[in-house]
From TrEMBL:
Family of the protein in this entry: Belongs to the CBF/MAK21 family.
Source domain of life: Eukaryota
A Gene Ontology term for the protein's cellular component: small-subunit processome
Organism phylogeny: Eukaryota, Metazoa, Ecdysozoa, Arthropoda, Hexapoda
Protein name listed in UniProt: Nucleolar complex protein 4 homolog B isoform X2
Domain CCAAT-binding factor: 125-269
GO terms for biological process, alphabetical: ribosome biogenesis
Alphabetized Pfam families for the sequence: CBF (PF03914)
């Protein structure tokens, strides 16, 4: 019942918007051109705040209007304003990203509005990465410093994001090319290696596999494993925003060597590749994205361990060892 009421309220707001757009009031009609953009923004805010409305219901409501260039133009003005005040705790980010995908972008707004989400921070910017990748790949959109932006997503705060698995997935897509500068790839490797020291176990396995894949794609970067030089401190600059200035190539993967001593066997085994020859086939990172503590515990319970003997002397009678040390040290009354 609540869903029907919410949908009816949204339809009522939308019909009011359409009437005002078609027949403006006397004061508004004096303007050469008028579009009720404020009312449209209110409708979008109501859509994002509604907790009991399905995206399919909203899609039906908007389908007939997203072909209208004026509607799309002013919708993107609303999106730009909403994105700056988007609260992922109270607003439905899933519906917002679907709205972005449904609404066409007029040519004159492509550069400004698409790159707006590139300049934001936090979860909404992570969700916008995939759209930026499609625009760069399929439509040759120039996106300045896109790898620098991606690099700065990998911070200690990322482990608190709901969409961190999406970040790993998209980073794998962006870094799949074998023609990227080795200095850039080395910076990503070192950033993930350093973060793995404080990451949850499930994320450590993802980042270690990611590092292994990058080393397979860029064989010259094996120097990070084989770097035996002795230095007073790690030359890698973790706080550097520009990955090309992070001095990553002069460092080594000592972090992965440290993870060999991790208390969890699954994590400890995941870094074994640095002590062996790298495989020819990459690890499937997508299989690790849905990993959880429950899965790790279940795997540990299913592991068969070799039975170890608890005594090295075969007793001659019930619960009595072969030697007489017990009788020498104890007297039973």
């Amino acid at each position: 019942m609540a869903t029907a009421t919410a949908v009816a309220d949204l339809k009522k707001q939308f019909n009011t918007f359409l009437r005002e757009n078609k027949c403006p009031t006397g004061e508004i009609v004096k303007k050469k051109y008028y579009f009720p953009v404020n009312r449209l923004k209110t409708i979008y805010m109501s859509m994002l705040s509604a907790t009991d409305v399905q995206w399919s219901q909203l899609q039906v409501m908007l389908t007939d209007h997203v072909e209208n260039l004026d509607f799309c133009y002013y919708s993107w003005e609303c999106f730009a304003s909403i994105a700056l005040q988007l609260d992922v705790k109270t607003m439905n980010v899933y519906i917002f990203t679907n709205l972005l995908g449904l609404t066409k972008i007029p040519n004159e707004k492509k550069e400004d509005d698409k790159l707006l989400f590139h300049s934001l921070t936090g979860p909404i910017s992570i969700l916008g990465l995939q759209g930026i990748f499609i625009l760069v790949k399929d439509y040759n959109l120039e996106c300045p410093n896109i790898y620098g932006k991606l690099y700065n997503f990998f911070t200690t705060d990322m482990f608190n994001y709901r969409y961190k698995t999406r970040l790993f997935y998209l980073a794998d897509i962006f870094l799949r090319s074998t023609h990227l500068p080795e200095l850039l790839v080395a910076a990503f490797i070192k950033r993930m290696a350093r973060l793995s020291l404080i990451a949850p176990p499930t994320d450590i396995k993802i980042m270690v596999a990611f590092i292994g894949n990058l080393l397979i794609r860029h064989p010259p970067l094996k120097v990070l494993i084989q770097n035996d030089s002795v230095v007073g401190s790690d030359p890698y600059i973790f706080d550097e925003k520009d990955p090309l200035k992070s001095n990553a190539l002069n460092s080594s993967l000592w972090e992965l060597v440290s993870l060999k001593q991790h208390i969890l066997p699954k994590v400890s085994k995941s870094v074994n590749f640095i002590f062996k020859k790298l495989p020819q086939v990459e690890w499937d990172v997508s299989e690790l994205l849905n990993d959880s503590y429950e899965n790790m515990i279940d795997e540990e319970f299913k592991t068969e361990f070799q039975k170890v003997s608890l005594t090295y002397e075969k007793p001659t009678s019930y619960a009595v060892p072969l030697s007489n040390h017990f009788d020498d040290l104890w007297t039973l009354d």
